[in-house]
Amino acid sequence: MPENNLDKKKIDYYKKRLMKLKENFMRDITNMSKDPGAQNGDSGDVSGHVLHMADVATDMYDREFNLGLASSEREVLNRIEQALKRIDDKTFGACIECKKPIPAARLKAIPYTETCLRCQEKIETKR
Hints:
CATH class: Mainly Alpha
Shape: elongated
Helix content: 55-70%
CATH topology: Four Helix Bundle (Hemerythrin (Met), subunit A)
Radius of gyration: 20 Å
Order of helices and strands: HHHH
């Protein structure tokens, strides 16, 4: 079993932070999906007049951009869910690669991180 150097108070702190992050990301994703016209392909023109091609292109770019953001936020949301599961499994705070404790500064900056900085750098250099 991986080492975990976090006491109950610290675990509770991270759990609350992760739950708050999860709530914020879910709200952001919901707000992006409520973008008028994004669901039905409508360009937002209700006047019955044809929009200029540049306006249509801008609307399409904005929708694509929002979809990209939503996709990125879903990835982070998934990582948050995995971190909450590690809290339940009592493996939170330990690197999934080397099994050593993740430094508190790294957990504070990225509470859903799975790896210590050394292992993360190894993973990224392999890509």
